[in-house]
Each structure stands twice: as C-alpha cells, then as structure tokens.
Amino acid sequence: MYNGLISADSVAQALQCLKTEIPFAIWETFYVTVISTALAVLVGLPLGVLLVAGEKGGVLPLPGWLMKALNVVINLLRSIPFLILMIMVFPLSRLLIGTTVGTTATIVPLVAAAFPFIARLVESSLREVDPNIVEAAQSMGATPLQIITRVMLPESVPSLLHNVTIALTTILGYSAMSGIIGGGGLGQIAINYGYYRYKYLVMLLAVVLLILLVQFFQTVGTKLAVRSDKRLKH
Amino acid sequence: MIEIRHLSKTFASPEGEVNALHDINLTIPDGDVYGIIGMSGAGKSTLVRCINMLEKPTGGTVMVDGRDMGALSPAELRKARRDITMIFQQFNLLMQRTCLQNVCFPMELSGVKKAAARKRAMELLELVGLPDKAGAYPAQLSGGQQQRVAIARALATDPKVLLCDEATSALDPSTTAQILSLIRDINAKLGITVVVITHQMSVVKEICRHVAILDRGTVAEEGLVSAVFAAPRSQAGRRLVFPGRVDEKVIDPARRGQLRLVFRDSATTSIPLVARMARERGILASVISATTQPLGGETYGGMLLSIPHEQMAEARAFLGSIANLTAEEVSDHV
Ligand SMILES: Nc1ncnc2c1ncn2[C@@H]1O[C@H](COP(=O)(O)OP(=O)(O)O)[C@@H](O)[C@H]1O
Ligand SMILES: [Mg+2]
Known about the structure:
The complex is a heterodimer of chains A (234) and B (334). With 234 residues, chain A is an all-alpha fold. Helix content of chain A is 77%, strand content 0%. The longest helix of chain B is centred in the middle third of the chain and has 18 residues, at 173-190. Chain B is 35% helix and 31% strand. In chain B, the strands form three sheets. Chain B has a six-stranded mixed beta sheet, with helices on both faces. Chain B has a four-stranded antiparallel beta sheet with strand order 2-1-4-5, with helices on one face. In chain B, strands 12-13-11-14 form a four-stranded antiparallel beta sheet. Chain B is elongated. Chain B is built from 13 helices and 14 strands. By secondary structure, chain B is α/β, with parallel strands linked by helices. The two termini of chain B are 37 Å apart. Magnesium ion is lined by residues 44-45, 166 of chain B.
C-alpha cells in the first residue's frame, strides 16, 4: 500500500495540505484535547477524591452501597470501547451541543470516556499520600474537608500532574479516533486522506504531527510535575 | 490534668481480636513530663492515641482538664485537639509546604488571619532555633531540624498538652539529646504538660519526672522515675532496667532466693556489703548483677544478690540495719 508513497505528486499535495488544512487541524486537536481533559478533570477529580475519602476508614466515610455503586459505574464506563461509546453518547451530544458532528461535539464522548479514567488516576495519586501526614492533620483538629483540600490534594500535586499528563495524551489519541465520526482535527485528516482517498503521505504527516503533539504534552507535563515537587532537593 | 480510668482498647483484626490495652489507670499531673515506656507492641502508641481520641477506646474514660474526651461531639473534639497536640517519630510534616507554611498550618485550620499566623510562626521557628529555615522545604532539612519544625507546629495553637510518640526514635543520639533538651525547655518555659512515649530508658531518664511502664497492654508499674528505675518492682520494669533477664535464669530457685538491694548516695555505695555479710554473719551471697546510675541529681545503686534460702532472714536483718538501703526479696520471677 505504500508503493509510490513519495512521488512529485504526493509530495506537492502534502505540502499543499500542510499549508492549508493542517495548521487549523493542529489547533482543533490541541483545543479539543485540552478542553476535554479540563472538563474530564472537573468531573473525575471529585469522584477520585470520593473514592479515597469515602471508603471505610477514610477521612469522610460514605455508605458502603454508595461506594460500591460508584465503583461499578466507573468500571462499567471504563470497559466500553471508545468507538462504541462515541456512538452511544450521540443523544447526549445532541442535547448539550445541538449536533453530533464537528470538533466541539466530540468533546462530549471524550469527556465521557476520560472522566472515569481520571477518577481512577486521581484515586491512585491520593493513595500515595502518607497516611501519617493525614493523621497528623487530624490530630490538629482538621475537618474532613480541610484534610482533602489542604492536605491530600496539595500533597499529591506532583503525582496529579503526572497522571493528568497521562490522561491528556490518552485523550489526544481518542480525539484522533473521533475523526471517524467527523470530529475534525488531525485524526480526521488522517482518515480522510489515508482511508478514503489513499493519500498515505498526508496520513503519515498527520500521524507524525500527532506524535509530536503527544511528545509536547508529555514533556511539558513531566517538567511541571517535577518542578512542582518540593520533596526533590533542587 | 489527664486522668485515664479503666481504659481498654480491643482491635478486631482478621486473625482475631487484639487486646492492645487492658484496664489502664493513670493520672498525669499538670506541668509534668510523664514518660510511658514499654517494649515494641506494648500498646504505647495506642494509649497515647486514645488521649486525643485518634483511637476510640473500647472501654473506660480519658478526662483532660475534667472533660471527658470520649463524650465530645466531632466538632468539640476538633477544638479540643488544639489544646492537645502531638509530634511523631516520622515528623509528619507537609512535604509540599515550606517550614513557615507548616507551622502556619494549624492556625490556618482554626481560622487565624494570615499575617498574624505568619508572625506567630516566625516566633515559634525562633523558639525552636530555626528562624533561617522559614522558606526551606522539609526535604531540605535533617531529621532533627524536621522534628524542630514539627515541635513549632505543635506549639502553634498554644496547647496545654504535648504528646510525643517516639519523637526521638528516628534520630541519632546527639540529635536526640538536643530535641529532648528543647522539649524540657518548652515544658519549663511554657508550662506545657508533656507525655513522652518511648521504648528507650535513656529518654525517660533524661527528661521525665514520672514514668509508667507498659507491658502487654497493662501498666506494670508507675511512679517517680527515680523510684521506679532505682527499684523496679515489676518483672517488666526489671527487664527494662536490667536488660538480659539475668535475674530469671541464673540461680536455682529451689535452693537460693534473690534479694534486690537499692541504695542511695555514695556513702552507702562504698560499703563492702558482700564481704561484710560473709565475714560478720557467714552469709554466702553471690552477686547476680550490680549497677549504679545517676537519677535526678543523685546516684542510685542497684544490686541483685542470690542467697541460700536458709540464710535469707538473717541477710534481710543485716541489710535492714544499713541506712539509705532497701532490700526486697524478688519472688515473682518466672
Ligand atoms: N489498627 C490496628 N489494628 C489491629 N491491631 C493493632 C492496630 N494498632 C495497633 N494494633 C496492635 O496493638 C498492639 C499495640 O500496638 P502499639 O500501640 O502500636 O504498640 P507500641 O506503640 O507500644 O509499639 C500491637 O499488638 C499491635 O499489633
Ligand atoms: Mg508505637
């Protein structure tokens, strides 16, 4: 399928594409990824906090049935393949955005897919907090809410940044997949040119740009996480 | 004053129930430095955590200044905890905050204005000798320095009681001495009651006035440090003061008994006791162990003698005639 990948024609077309469609596609992918991650964090972070604080022996124990329900829902959502989830949330997208196609509409399935994942990542970050530090705060008369907002979350900032970076790069991958349902961005370019029109060079170009975006997010995220960690002696 | 009455604590664990504390009765006077010593697993941490209700007792009461800690509502308990603060073996500082922010933390919790809190925190860092570390993070500090910050943090809410759970167990001997002297200063200057949990005799000797010996969840004995350590009555006490259990294995209990001598001041220490017993009374005593130790400005001597049963009465009569010396027959050995 890659015969004649590089020809005068294909190179010219790729260059053309690079000038016209790709800059906007990069922006679309970037913006969809960042907005979706932000919204997914908005939903997933409180859920992750509940998963840790609400368990038996946690700082804010919740009824056992509630914790079980929460766990089941999160596991359920996480086990639906993204391709199918995208279609399943069409009604929701229509309700919230008014349409099921286009860049903005893909934010809905992306958030739906990512927030349970983020809840689990937040859970694992919070579990890394030294329980002795939590107990010290309790011994000083901290309320459960104070322990969550002033001890557990601030103490796990480096780990949270690490995990949000993982989520961001994962969501970037998903956003490319949403090109199939007309989600726009680099994913759509790859599919339009590569799958429908057999222009593999453009497809490869889009893939390379996706890889570069992942590298960019990962590098920035890791830097921020390391820089924020006061346990390391700089 | 802290009054602990009939305190018990049972943990339910998968292997069955663990009776961590059983019918503990202690009274800790205001302004005291009170040691609670025992081997690992004796229940020291559980006991101290019952004082501020980090652990809910299974039975009994803990009264602090006449208030039943177990009967407080969650909100009242949180408020009471500002008066009973705690330091820990692992310091437990917030690692993502500077030292100054760590000391501000308890004041933040209780709603003290930021500027006032920072000012107070600086004073406290000065008190513990670390004013230049205000902007440093805990990871940049040595263990001893971290414990100083933890002490400053524990003082931030002007507590009446400071609980120290193995506060020096992670520190080297010279740092331990510095931290102990800081704790002693705080007790003397601020009049704060200090409860010291430790497995080290040296710590109790260094700063405590009273001591309770905890053994498998019960108080084996308690009293003034000088009295308890000079003449431990309980088996657990003897094991601490005379490690190695010499007094349990050395002699044949069928033929010989044990007499524990405790004496004070150097005049008594210089009497050639064993020689005189032999020459003047014909008593064939042998020395199992002998020690001297400085306690509260005096020198105490302790000696464990083994004496044939038939000569025991005679020996006691002879020793009873010597001033500053008490002789006690040790009979409860295993
Ligand atoms: N949360 C717990 N669950 C079950 N057993 C516990 C718990 N905490 C302490 N214990 C048990 O209680 C006993 C006393 O423990 P602890 O108070 O920590 O002793 P110490 O501080 O003197 O070493 C030990 O046998 C310990 O295993
Ligand atoms: Mg302990």
